[in-house]
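example protein:
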Amino acid sequence: MPFPDLPNNHALFVLLLTAFALYLFRRDDIPLETSCVIVLLALTIGFSFAPFHNFNGRLEPMQFFSGFGHEALVAVCALMICGQGLVRTGALEPIGRFLGSIWKSAPLFSLLLTLLIAGALSAFVNNTPIVVLLLPILVSVAIRTKTSPSALLMPMGFATIIGGMATTIGTSTNLLVVSVASDLGLPDFGMFDFLVPASIAAIVAIIYLWLIAPRILPERQAVMKNTSPRVFTAQLHIEKNSFADGKTLSEVINKTDGQMKVVRIQRGDEISIVPMPDAKVKAGDRLRVIDTPEHLKEYEQVLGAKLYRRGKQISEDHPLTAENQQLSEIVVTPGSPLAGRTLKDVEFIDQYGLVAIALHRGDSVVDMHNKGLGTVTLHVGDVLLVQGGQKDIAEFKKSGEILILDATTDLPKSHRAPRALFIMGLVVLLAAVGALPIAISALGGAMLMILVHCMTWREAMHALSAQVILIVASSLALGIAMIETGAAEYLAQAFVASLYGAPPAVLLSGLMLLLALLTNVVSNNAAAVIGTPIAVSIANQLNLPAEPFVIAVLFGANMSFATPMAYKTNLLVMSAGGYKFSDFIKVGVPLVILMWITLSFVLPILYQF
C-alpha cells in the first residue's frame, strides 16, 4: 500500500500544532495551563485568519471552545467533586483502618490485599483520593516495620491506575475516549463493556506488582526520614570577653553569616530589648533564638556563648527538647490551597500555626530553613516538612484540605460518611444500568453531596483542577481540528501503510503500543483524545469494527507507568517514597510491556480477529 500524499495545508498546520502541543505539555518550566491556552489561541486565531471549508461548510473557530461544555468534561469535574465528598467525610476511612490493622500479622498478604482494594476502588472513584488515603497508611507501616516505603508506594500507585482501566468512569481518560468515540458515531459504551480484558490484564499486572516490583525497586528512604523535632527555642548566654560582648546585634548576626534569627534580647530578670540591628549586646545578655540543633551549636561555638534552655545549660544530661511538638510531612495535592502559591501568599504560619522547615521536590530534599522557603512557589507533588504543636497539627489534619503523611491524629471522621457512600453508589448504579448518562448522574451526585452537607461549595471548588479542565478542553479542540481537516484520516492512512500487509491484530497491537509510548511523554488525556479519531479511521479503512481499536487506544493511553510526569498520582508517590526518575523506568517499563503483550493477545481473541 503506497504512503498517502500530504494532506491539505490546514491539516498540516493541525499536525504541526499537535506536535508542538505535545512538546509543551511535557515541559516542566511552562505551566500546563499556559500550554493549553496557547494551543486554544493558536487554533482559534489560525482558523479565524485562514478559514477552512469542508463538506460540512466552514469550520467555525468558536467550535474549538466546545470542549468546555463537553459532557466528558462535565463528568470528569463532577466525579472529582464526588470523590472529594468521600474524602471530606472520611467515608473510606474504615478501609484504611482495616488495611492498617492486618499489616501487623501478614505483610505479604496485606500488600496483595492493598493492591486489590486500591484497584477495585479506583474503578469507581478517581484514584487521587485513593492514593491520598493509602499513602499515610503505607508510610506508617514502613516506619513501624523499619523498612523502606519504596517497596510499597509505587506498586500501590500503579494498582490504582490499573483499576481505573476497568470502567468508563475509572479515569478521565476513559471518559474522554468513550465520549469522543460517541461523537464520531460509535454506539455508546456501557460502564463495564471492557471489564473482561481489563481484568485479565490486571491479574497479570497485580501479580507483577505484588511479587516482582518490590524486589527490583531500589531501597529508598522516605523523603523526611528523620522524624524527631528539628526546630528549638534556646537562649545564648553572652560570656564576658566573648566575640559578642560589646558588639551590635548586626555585627553578631553577620558573624553567623547572617543565618541567626534573634527573637528577643533578655537583660537581667525584667528588661527585654527589641532586637534592633544597632542594639548593643553585653556580657550577661541572653539572646533568644529559634533554630535547628546543628545551627544552635554552631552559633554557640562561633560567638563564644553558652547555650541554655529553661535555665539549664545544654549538655548530654540536659539535651534540647521540644515538648508537645510534632513533625509532619505535607504533600501538595491537586486542589490543595498551597498548589501554585507560596507559603507567604497563604499566610501559612498565621493561618495554621506551623513552621515550614524543609522542602522536598523531585529527587532531593532541600533544607530551606532560613533560606526563604516562604517565597517558593509550591508545585503539586512537593512535600513540606513542618513543625508545630500537637493541637495545631490535629486541627490542620481535620480540616481535610491537605494530605499529611506523618502525624499521630486520626483521619477526618463524619457521621455523614454513609450519605457520601450512598450518593456515590447511586451515581455508579444509575450510570451502570443506563438510566442516566454518567455526566448527569455524576453532576446530580455532586449537587447532592453539597445539599446534604457532605462538603461545602468551597471544598467542592478545591476538588476541581484547572490543569485537568484546560487539558481536557484543549485536547478536545485538537481532536475536532484533526477530524474536520482530515489530519486524523491522514495519520490513520500513514499508520496502515507503514504496517501494510500485517494482520489486524498486529495493527491493533501497534496502535496500543504507540499510545502507551505517547502517554508516558505527554498528558494521557491528550494522547487519548488524539488517538481515538485515528483508531476509528484505521478501523474504517480496514472495514473492521471500530470498538476494539478504540479500546486499544483507551488501554494504551492508561499505561502511564514509565515516567513520574505521566500521571498526577505518580508525582505524589514519587515525593512520598523518595523515588528517582530511573525507578519509574525500572519498574514501569516492564509493566507497560507486560500489559501490552497481554492485551495484544486478549483483545483479538475477544473480538475474533
Summary: The chain is about 55% helix and 10% strand.
